[in-house]
């Protein structure tokens, strides 16, 4: 017996959570003497008001789709991959090496190679925590958190040392060669004669992210590997009984997860910055956790949640730019949304479940004809 | 007797969990100084009712009277104050505390432990003499047997001055001898004027020890009878709502060539404990070998090592072909491919993924089978769904809906789902653990028939069960396990529960 209809689980709960986050945000904005309605309007307009704004919203969305999918895939195997940020930044290293040290005749080949490079580097960075979990039982949450720091430290060393061009004062790689520059929305839509803002960073990797959504969906619900991943995630003893190798599932699901997180750097490193800088991910790996939670680990849900968080990021940036609302407060709003949609899920869910049960009981007082014997 | 005040009276208790009406308008009177049985199938609402009485759940409606006084029991503290003690099916003891410490836990008199402990020691001694409730007060819980642990639970209740004792399926983990000991204790308690409520699904226990019995079916109280005026078939019929066959109908076995041969099989677990200490046996085609024993004497490990997910050493031959016990070159998958099917002991933990739909569960373990593959990568979900529908019909799984999640089926139907998956593969050897644990009587009949049918089709069956009755009626040969060893083999019509009980307790009295 399901506790409530599916649409309530998938749509109603996130919407109510968002409303609650919105109400508290409004109270906070009122408390500092600003008008919440105006602030909301600025955010919505800032995220969707122009092609330029959309360009930024979709750029952020792309980041969050990759990291959200990364968390979602691991979550199906009941692995909580907190290391998306580290895996994404090491993925960026893969992109940088491919772009800087290999000569490319055309951006498409570079993109292909960079995709492989970022996925490999991201996956490799997830391998050690996965192996430790599978073989030694070291908790994946702890190890992946620690690996975020290791990743940051490693990049710090590389970017102030070996990878920094001679004479540069900045901890970053040099600009990637012109040929590795991938088309942004302006270029792509321009081919169809549709004008789009030239300066907005959304680029072709958005479509790779969409493709990744489909690939993850097929993997989880159509392949044998996905079946085994889900089975293992639901019950380890049952998976053992069925002859599913736990080590293999832990390692493979974390490799896929790390690869997806690593591929985020196609967007931010190759598509936008066109060089590798310190802290290139800007915390997108952590947003991925909220995105996966809100999206119920389903690729379509992840897409929608990523879009929401993309808009929130872009709208928030405009909000701090156009008003006296300090940027810290924008972070508060974003945090409230994460808190309500991710962490406080049960706060909305429990009363709603009770409500649905009560509603269902009223019209049919004895809904138990004779199902079983 | 009706003019006396009942020790417990429940009036019109109802409790719903969502759309499921677990208890519906239940009224019951339990007279002081009696043993009152409450019998019903799994899911009939016995445990819910007792949880309401012990303050774990709040009833939606209804009243509770203790010794004629209307009493509200909002939590277990209130239940204890009202003189109610409960012995749970799964003991709630601190393993690394002593008996004494466990007894006073939560009932300490003050800040300092020492006076409480001294007082408890005195009382324990008294109780031990009074009721045959002897346990060493200084032994650690983890060092004493299951029977003794249960006595500690009873002592805990008595130490809290309980006059009414509720026991939930108390004999599930006990040997027949331990169960007899428990029943003697209950008789003593009754003689001292205590009131006892015994929850069970075993008809034999009801007949043996209770004075009155109340029968529950699907959340409702369907009958109160005095034990002296009833019989097992009548109670079974009340429980199920129709006539049931209590005995398995089967022809004598015609064993063929040995299918499974096991020699000197040993299993040592991660902590270095020897779970199997070198056992040898064989199962022939067309026979059921029943493994009897109290839970935890190596039967689970035996099934697991044969099923391919527990490491062991020793020789396993299937149809004369060696099978790797060490799991270095094999796992559950290769076992299935070689013709071993396995109905595991715990269907909810191992046999099924409760959140998976029925069709996903039908593929479980066989998801590598060629007929379920679309290509190297993709599964043929539509084909699995079609196969599931067919199997559900054949094994009478209700409702026959392949899209329903396993958790939404009743216990009996979940088990039928597992059997449909495993038996329909037509294995050479079927491993079955606790085939009817938590299964309603109606489904038990069907499950037993399926197992016997597979035997009659010339397959070998290894049956592990802690229900001695089930072993006695289903098996063609009985091996008794104790402490990782096989204590002896018997034929069901040449032995009895008493002899098997001795073997189960580790007494290898080679019956002369």
Brief rundown of the structure:
The complex is a heterodimer of chains A (373) and B (512). Chain A is mainly α.
Descriptive notes:
The complex is a heterodimer of chains A (373) and B (512). With 373 residues, chain A is mostly helical. Chain A has a domain at 65-295. In chain A, 73% of the residues lie in helices and 0% in strands. Chain A contains 16 helices and no strands. The longest helix of chain A has 30 residues, at 107-136. The radius of gyration of chain A is 22 Å and the shape is globular. Mean pLDDT of chain A is 90; it is low at 364-373. Chain B is an alpha/beta fold. Chain B folds into 2 domains: 8-240, Rossmann fold, CATH 3.40.50; 258-351 and 427-504, P-loop containing nucleotide triphosphate hydrolases (Rossmann fold, 3-Layer(aba) Sandwich). Helices cover 33% and strands 24% of the residues of chain B. In chain B, the strands form 4 sheets. Chain B has a 6-stranded mixed beta sheet with strand order 6-7-8-3-9-10, with helices on both faces. In chain B, strands 16-17-18-13-19-20 form a 6-stranded mixed beta sheet, with helices on both faces. In chain B, strand 11 (258-268) and strand 12 (274-284) form a beta hairpin. The longest helix of chain B is centred in the N-terminal third of the chain and has 19 residues, at 113-131. The mean pLDDT of chain B is 89. The chains are: A mainly alpha (373), B alpha/beta (512). Chains A and B meet through helix 9, helix 10 and helix 16 of A and helix 10 and helix 11 of B.
